[in-house]
């Protein structure tokens, strides 16, 4: 016979299985994720350093204290907001609404449309930083037009480079020169090229800035103006020193540029003196051959 049963409910004297579920998380406090949006005031839990968010990259956040000094930290745990621990994360990009514009302000082409085969024409810029900035703002437009941007590492040999390239009808060259101001070495080189045998198929324009870094509005790095660097001091090293950024090694300068470039979102973050010259070059090299 089956054993007699007791119809009266008896509670389990031993309770639930202690190994069931996430027993390690019992009583653990959940630390919220907070996007590191610009101007968010954050405190470092370890030492009490307090600053506002001025820059965010893939893995780092830069904070600026009330004295204008900046420090860079890895995103993640170890921060306080309003005295409460948080996990700082990179802000998510907003989903595009309606017809999408490129960083240069033009309308983007339909998704999936292939880029054109590269045109024979070219745009030359002085250095790698110039090329990276042009790519970030105008890259989508240039790929649609089939225009390739190359960097020269300076314009001292521009005439010889053009002789080798052999500009001609349908093979135009636009050149963007840094610090193209009256009386400068760069102006003399540009004038000689524009008087030379390639003048009908070459356009040399420039901006007045000592370096293309200055083509970025200083507000993008939390400053009112770019510092004035004394003659005899490397301009980029001087800028980093004035901003309190590392500058002892070339790798420091490269990181400083990536920090600046990372804050450039679109054409509105660049100075008009640079914007206009690049647009002029694009129009020149994409004009119908004639």
UniProtKB/TrEMBL annotation:
InterPro entries: DUF3097_C, DUF3097_N. It comes from the Bacteria. Residues 33-91, 121-286 form the DUF3097 domain. This is DUF3097 family protein.
